[in-house]
Amino acid sequence: MLKAGFISLGCAKNLVDTEVMLGLLATNDIKITDNPHEADILIINTCSFIDSAKEESISTILQMADYKKHGNCKCLIVAGCLGQRYQQELLDELPEVDAIVGTGAWHRIIEAINDILVDHKRVLLVGETDTLYDETMPRISTTPFYSAYVKIAEGCSNCCSYCVIPKVRGSFRSRTMESIIAEVKNLVATGVKEINLIAQDTTSYGRDLYKSPKLTDLLKELVKIDGLMWVRLLYCYPKYFSNELIELIATESKICKYIDLPLQHANDDILRAMLRQDGRKDIENLLTTLRARIPGITIRTSFIVGFPGETEEHFEDLKQFIMEQKFDRVGVFTYSQEDDTIAANLPQQLSDEIKQERYHSLMTLQCQISEQLNQELEGTVLDVLIEQVNINESEIVVSGRSYREAPDVDGQIYVEKAMECKPGDVIKARIVQGFTYDVVAEKL
C-alpha cells in the first residue's frame, strides 16, 4: 500500500482543501502517514498570500524534496496557492517537484499521482476556477474532534489593490445552502460541537448564487441542528453586515458573540487606495452598532501597515483609531508588494525599516489594550471548551477556549482545579487573572 505524507500551510481555507484531498487519498487506498521519511508520496498544500508565506512554502518544498534522496519519496506534489500562482516557474526551477496541483484542481490529486507513478510524467493541473467541494466529498479531519471548519464559499470578487486572491482562487462563488447544512449535520453527528464558518468574505455569502446576501438565512438553519453548540463567524467584511445579521447574533445563543472583521486600515485616503468598500465613518458606525446591540461581543480585526503612500499622519490616524476602539484581538501585517496587484505599481513604496517600526508600534499598543481588556474580565464566568490536558512532572495543566477565542489564532484559558476534565468537555469557569494574550480561570 502506498503511503502519503501531507503538509498544509496557510489559512483555514487551505486546511479544508487539505482535508478533502486527504479524504480522496484514503478512499483510493493510500495510507496517510505523519512520518515523511516513510512516505512514497509527499504533498505540500502551499500559501502565497504575502512574502513570508511564499518563503515558508518554498522552504518546506525544499525540505520535503530531500526525502527523494534520503527517504522513500517517489512523488513530490506542490498543491494550493503557490502552485496556482507560479505554476511553470516552479516546474522550471525545482526539478524535484513532480506535479503542480492548483487551487481549483484539488479533486484531481489522484490523477496527478497516477500520472507520476504509472506514466512517469511531470504534471501541471491548474486553471480551474469553478471548483467547489460539497458534503459528498470524502474528508479527513485534521482538527480536534469537537471543532471543524466549514468553507461556505470560495474565491473573492472584492479585488482589493494589494491582494492576489482573486487571481489565485477565482471570483467569489457560494456553495448551496443545502450542501452546507448537510455537511454541518454530518460533522455534528461525528461529535463536532463547534463549527467555524469560513470564506474569503463570509458576509457576501449567497450574493452570486441567490442574488442577495444569505448568511443570515443560512445561520437560521444551522442553529436548528441538535448537538451543535457554537457557530463562529470568521472573515466577515463590513460591507454586507446587515442589521438582520446583527440581530440574529444578538439573540441566538448558538452563534458565538465573536466577529472576525478584517478592516486593514482606518484612514480614508489609504482605504481608498486599497480599494476597500468602506470608509472610516462606515466602520465606526458598524462597530458602535455591534457593541450596543451585542453586549460582551469580542471583535477581532487585522491591519496592514506600510501601504504605499502611507504617511506618518496616516499611520497616526490608524493608531488613534485602535486606541479609541480597543479591539479584543488585532493582527498586524506589514505590506507585501505582490506581483500582479494594483498596489505593487503605486508610487511611494515604503522601506522595510519603516514597515517594521510601524508594525512593532501597533503591536506594542495592542498588547497594552489586550492586557487591560483581559484584566477587566476578572470575575466573569464563561463556558470553556477544554482542549488540552497536559500532565507535567509536578502538575496537570488544563486549557481551553470560550466563545471569545477562535481556534488557532487567539489565546487560551488556563483552568485551575480541572484535573478531571478531558478534551471536548464544556465547563463553567471564573476568570481570576488576565494577561496579554491568555487568561487564568478557576473551574466552578
TrEMBL record:
InterPro entries linked to this entry: Elp3/MiaA/NifB-like_rSAM (IPR006638), Methylthiotransferase (IPR005839), Methylthiotransferase_CS (IPR020612), Methylthiotransferase_N (IPR013848), Methylthiotransferase_N_sf (IPR038135), NA-bd_OB-fold (IPR012340), Ribosomal_uS12_MeSTrfase_RimO (IPR005840), rSAM (IPR007197)
Domain spans labelled TRAM: 375-444
Subcellular locations according to the entry: Cytoplasm
Reaction(s) catalysed (UniProt annotation): L-aspartate(89)-[ribosomal protein uS12]-hydrogen + (sulfur carrier)-SH + AH2 + 2 S-adenosyl-L-methionine = 3-methylsulfanyl-L-aspartate(89)-[ribosomal protein uS12]-hydrogen + (sulfur carrier)-H + 5'-deoxyadenosine + L-methionine + A + S-adenosyl-L-homocysteine + 2 H(+)
Domain MTTase N-terminal: 2-118
Gene Ontology terms: cellular component: cytosol; ribosome
Annotated EC: 2.8.4.4
UniProt binding sites for [4Fe-4S] cluster 2: 156, 160, 163
4Fe-4S recorded as keyword: yes
Radical SAM core domain sequence ranges: 142-372
Pfam families: Radical_SAM (PF04055), TRAM_2 (PF18693), UPF0004 (PF00919)
PROSITE patterns reported in the protein's UniProt record: MTTASE_N, MTTASE_RADICAL, RADICAL_SAM, TRAM
Keyword annotations from UniProtKB, A to Z: 4Fe-4S, Cytoplasm, Iron, Iron-sulfur, Metal-binding, Ribonucleoprotein, Ribosomal protein, S-adenosyl-L-methionine, Transferase
Cofactor binding note of this UniProt entry: Binds 2 [4Fe-4S] clusters. One cluster is coordinated with 3 cysteines and an exchangeable S-adenosyl-L-methionine.
SUPFAM superfamilies: Radical SAM enzymes (SSF102114)
Binding-site positions, [4Fe-4S] cluster 1: 11, 47, 81
GO MF annotation list: 4 iron, 4 sulfur cluster binding; aspartic acid methylthiotransferase activity; catalytic activity, acting on a tRNA; metal ion binding; protein methylthiotransferase activity
Cofactor(s) for this UniProt protein: [4Fe-4S] cluster
Gene Ontology BP term (one): tRNA methylthiolation
PANTHER family: RIBOSOMAL PROTEIN S12 METHYLTHIOTRANSFERASE RIMO, RIBOSOMAL PROTEIN US12 METHYLTHIOTRANSFERASE RIMO
Family: Belongs to the methylthiotransferase family. RimO subfamily.
Protein's UniProt name: Ribosomal protein uS12 methylthiotransferase RimO
Organism, scientific name: Pelosinus fermentans JBW45
Lineage: Bacteria, Bacillati, Bacillota, Negativicutes, Selenomonadales
Gene: rimO
